[in-house]
Amino acid sequence: WIVAIVLSFSVVFPKLDVEMRQPKNKLEERQEIRVQQSRPMVQYKAPKEKKEIDGSCSMPTRLQRIMCEGICAGSFPGSGSEMLRALISSMTGIKTSKGIPQEDKTKNVYVSYKTHMPKRVGAESNCKLSRAMLLLRNPMHAIPSYCNYGYESSINVRNHQVQATPEYWVSCRDKNFEKWLAVWVYNVEYWVTKYSSNNLLLLTYENITNTNLGPENAMRLAKFLIVGKGVSVHLQDVPCVWKKVVQGKKGHSKGSQYRNKTYVPDYTLKQLVSVKEGLQHLMSNPKNSLLTNALTEYLKDAEHRISNVKM
Length: 311
Hints:
Layout: H1 2-12, H2 14-19, H3 26-38, E1 71-75, H4 81-92, E2 112-115, E3 132-136, H5 139-154, H6 166-194, E4 200-204, H7 205-208, H8 214-225, H9 238-247, H10 269-283, H11 289-308
Parallel strand pairs: 1-2, 1-3, 3-4
Helix pairs in contact: 4-9, 5-6, 6-10, 8-9, 10-11
Organism: Corethron hystrix
Protein name: Sulfotransferase domain-containing protein
């Protein structure tokens, strides 16, 4: 009768019957543990968030002068060259120069060398480096910025702080417009002729300061710089550095776009026609697709202004 009870108990409670069996020996227990450990664990993966430019990158606290292959950074005055210098030095950690290198003093110790040369039609730049970049800006914006610089100097105010008065602008414009426009056109011709497309980087002020286009243009600049020996850039930080320098007004200098504007500088019809003709002259001999695109936008602006001039 004892056997009958046990059999009936195992039928009713089969699970308990399994547990009442003989315990496994140590070898079996170790084998079971290894099997359990070898099973893949299902881990929770958080959804990937879209990476935004949050400005969390670090900026160099001290800039260095080191042996490196720098570039000449050409531009017409009022085109944002100081902003560009700040961006370059913040990306590389290397100092930039306000002038062209001298053979016996500063050669090859700066990452870029700012120059506004040639400053007159027919002149040449004294840049002897093998690579260069040209920072281009709509002449109808660069010329007022150049006048603002003169106004700030006349009232002993630090650069890139205030806009010239309307009266000062008109006087500066009418005195210098024809000469400065001719130099602007010649400047563009000079740099795109002197350097091949492989050795010349073309950037526009409009793109480098644009919220959408700025980061990718800063990346173009960074990749152009690191071709030179001794120059390195953390490419993953470039968008963040761009945001801090260009939009956050940080870095080692500030660009002219930070002036507080109280009015839009205007031009006479004759002056606008001169701008249009100068742009058409440059476009008649295209040497660079990016240049053509920029000139096309500037030409549209000139034509729009011409159509709005009150006769």
